[in-house]
Design goal:
The chain is low in regular secondary structure. Helix content is 13%, strand content 0%.
């Protein structure tokens, strides 16, 4: 997905296994979001704290480039 998800509110959302590689995630809210096995590519726009919280929830950060 190549999208700008700026100011998106994912509070309580179930985005399990979603493919968000290539998405810009500035100012997103992730409170109680279900993110297990969700792919985030590089996690563009996430703060260090958001990145750590999402990793605890099972997010996969990988390169958005195809090899």
């Amino acid at each position: 997905m190549d999208a700008d998800l700026i100011f998106a509110n994912f509070t309580g959302a179930d985005i399990t296994k979603a493919d968000l590689r290539g998405a810009t995630l500035n100012e997103t809210i992730w409170i109680n979001a279900l993110v297990n096995k969700c792919e985030f590519g590089e996690g563009i726009g996430l703060s260090n704290q958001q990145r750590q919280d999402l990793l605890l929830g099972g997010v996969i950060f990988s390169s958005s480039k195809l090899d």
